[in-house]
Amino acid sequence: MTTTRAEKVRDAAYRMRHHILDMGEVQGQGYVGQALGVADLLAVTYVDQLRFRADDPHWPERDRFLLSTGHYAIALYAALAEAGTVPVTELETYGSDGSRLPMSGMASYTPGMEISGGSLGHGLTVAVGMALGLRLKGREQRVFNFLSDGELDEGSTWEAAMGAAHHQLGLLTAMVDMNALQADGPTENVLGIEPAEEKWEAAGWFTQRVDGNDIDALLAAFDAAAEQARPVGRPSVILCDTRIGRGVPLLETREKAHFMRIDEDEWQLCREQLSEGYEGAR
Ligand SMILES: Cc1ncc(C[n+]2csc(CCOP(=O)(O)OP(=O)(O)O)c2C)c(N)n1
Ligand SMILES: [Mg+2]
């Protein structure tokens, strides 16, 4: 029996969610909810879309994946472990002194981490510069920028969005985690950004909005973006509505979801719930 693209992605996302829980347990807390929410999105990116060499993170021909949100590093570490760039055994060093896997993403520490993105609202500006630079060199690599809905409240993001359309950076794809949450509460209470699709369209982007936990919908959206991708053309954005804590019911309903503290005896329960959900869906 052949494994479909969607099955490959689903299995990778499941393993990544386990990695996220394992890393989270090392610190007893962290940005676990967001990471579980975007595991499907990052699995699609790393398993199905991105051109890279796991054992050569500086391979000049690679597509670029820029994580704007440094606090989502735990999600990227899970993807890098699944990809084979970071050994799975190294995940237990997460957040410890001297580890290559600090709690906030640092490009100089971690193989495969292209930028240090903790200062929110800067990732897309860097991505625009990188896409322009690659085009000037005559290269046809794609640049993917992962950003959060909180970053849509930053003016610099919209300057970059307009700049990308102005310069017709057709190999640039932004993916936004529309988890409807920020550190200070629900996005709609902090600074509403809806209707987000219309804003991106008005900025000149090929815009799609999907359920970010529906792997088939994600694959279709990434395929449509890839179809559009050309050196001179419209940049693409995929707005992904994700659910915090996805896959672990205990965490899907947590009130304090931006930075979760999880009791010692809850981690095993989280793992069991994750496994039950995965087996149940098969
Ligand atoms: C420029 C900047 N301002 C403020 C912060 C502090 N901060 C860290 S996470 C965060 C929430 C941003 O929203 P989002 O990324 O959507 O949050 P999440 O979905 O992870 O809850 C803020 C304001 C920051 N890192 N950078
Ligand atoms: Mg958010």
From TrEMBL:
<dbReference type="Pfam" id="PF00456">
    <property type="entry name" value="Transketolase_N"/>
</dbReference>
<dbReference type="InterPro" id="IPR005474">
    <property type="entry name" value="Transketolase_N"/>
</dbReference>
<comment type="similarity">
    <text>Belongs to the transketolase family.</text>
</comment>
<keyword id="KW-0786">Thiamine pyrophosphate</keyword>
<feature type="domain" description="Transketolase N-terminal">
    <location>
        <begin position="15"/>
        <end position="274"/>
    </location>
</feature>
<protein>
    <submittedName>
        <fullName>Transketolase</fullName>
    </submittedName>
</protein>
<dbReference type="InterPro" id="IPR029061">
    <property type="entry name" value="THDP-binding"/>
</dbReference>
